[in-house]
Amino acid sequence: MSEPIEHLLALLAFPGLLATIVLTLLVVLVGQLPAPGGGLTRGIARTLAGDGSPLLLAAALAPAAAAALLPWPGSPLDGWRLDRLWLVWAILELSHALALLPGLQSPSPSSMRAAMREAQMGAAGRVAFWVAIGITVWAGPWTWPSLPAHILALLAAALALPAAAAWGPFAPERSIAPGGPEGDMGRAAADLAQWGRAVRTTVIASLVPVLALPPIPDAHWDINLALAVVITLILATIGRVMNGNSVRRPTLDGLRWCYTRALPLALLAGVAVVLGNRWL
Question: Where are the domains of the chain?
Fold first, then answer.
């Protein structure tokens, strides 16, 4: 099979658009995320008909391209390259930025405040999360010299993931404005906003098993793939528990959590990589 066809299949089927939507549906069901049934297809259809938000449509579908670039077990793409991590980062961050624009441009001050809180919380969580993921990729295979760095980076990613995925105390605040950041949107735009958030949460959570955890050595790719999906769903279950048993953090408390706990631990993992390469 030619390389362009392999890339197209990876983008449209596995591990791209189709696989991402299926995994998102599972995460929505397991994590009980606020994404209305049929909202994605309804939002896409209404947007294509001219009654919706092209920005939110792009923000909802772009993460599938990021998922297609990840080294999922059984992916038709060739071996993982570090430069793809930059593309994954750029696509997901662009998706977050596009999703925030309608709320930040809302004529309602309360909806704008809710969108601003989501922007600040999410950005802080993703800074620490991306540093942790980048360091665990930089550390390379799990060996004895790299083990301290991998463990520290994994702990940092675990601390940052709730904020990066908008779970629990870091979830969008809906007491500021009815409907939260989507309060002033029409139904089609609100559906796309909620489903886009679910898709981004799914892809971000899947980075942990795909990039931060080692595969089972010598196991068939479908076993490692099933394990990655199961771990993603376990993380979604943890998110559901957090959503049901926590109150929203004030913005400054959330920023302090990310910048004084998760991020320093991720940077310490980077120091461990350097020391491991130098002395071990």
Answer: 3-279
